[in-house]
Specification:
Number of helices: 2
CATH architecture of one domain: Sandwich
Order of helices and strands: EEEEEEEEEEEHH
Largest sheet: 6 strands, antiparallel
Helix content: 10-25%
Strand content: 25-35%
Structural class: alpha+beta
CATH topology of one domain: Tumour Suppressor Smad4
Distance between the termini: 72 Å
Shape: globular
Radius of gyration: 23 Å
């Protein structure tokens, strides 16, 4: 199962969600024949596909304005649970939640293969690090985060009395 959540552009709070159980390919764009239709001038008619492969889910950019992951433009990349993609540089943000089942043997083998392909002395790929981070988070997570918590607000400062600046305190004006 995979859930896509459109995030508010300023506050990163959920605006709308779509859940798919058995779809091997999920299409996102402005055209009405997509699974997820977004009405934004910067979103292409067929902007991005999220495809399930044997081991992971991949994001495939189809749009002329690009698809971004962690601020970097991507053409095709594996995606992990909790990742947020942005359609175009200033377009809508979509959080991707993947069923939190433990990694399968195929997924573990994929990670091992990725590690073995990393040249000696170099850093592992960002995708490998993200997949490993997701695996560790799945091990440690016993209860999903409570997304129903109300947002906290900041109270204005309490009145501190008259200003010490004469230009702001009319009672002291000459």
């Amino acid at each position: 199962m995979i859930t896509l959540t459109l995030l508010h552009p300023l506050q990163d709070i959920p605006v709308q969600s779509w859940t798919f159980d058995d779809e091997p390919v999920i299409r996102i764009g402005r055209a009405t024949d997509n699974h997820v239709v977004l009405y934004s001038a910067v979103v292409s008619r067929h902007h991005v596909e999220i495809r399930r492969n044997e081991v992971t889910w991949d994001v495939l950019n189809l749009g002329s304005n690009g698809t971004y992951l962690d601020g970097k433009r991507v053409n095709q990349t594996p995606i992990i649970d909790g990742a947020v993609i942005r359609l175009a540089r200033s377009g809508p943000k979509i959080q991707i939640r993947i069923d939190s089942a433990p990694l399968s043997e195929k997924q573990r083998a994929y990670l091992e293969k990725e590690r073995s392909l990393t040249p000696s002395g170099s850093e592992p790929s960002k995708d490998t690090l993200l997949i490993e981070k997701n695996r560790e988070a799945q091990k440690q997570a016993s209860v999903p985060p409570n997304s129903n918590k109300p947002a906290t607000s900041v109270s204005p400062p309490e009145d501190e009395g008259p200003s010490t600046r004469p230009d702001l305190n009319p009672s002291e004006a000459q």
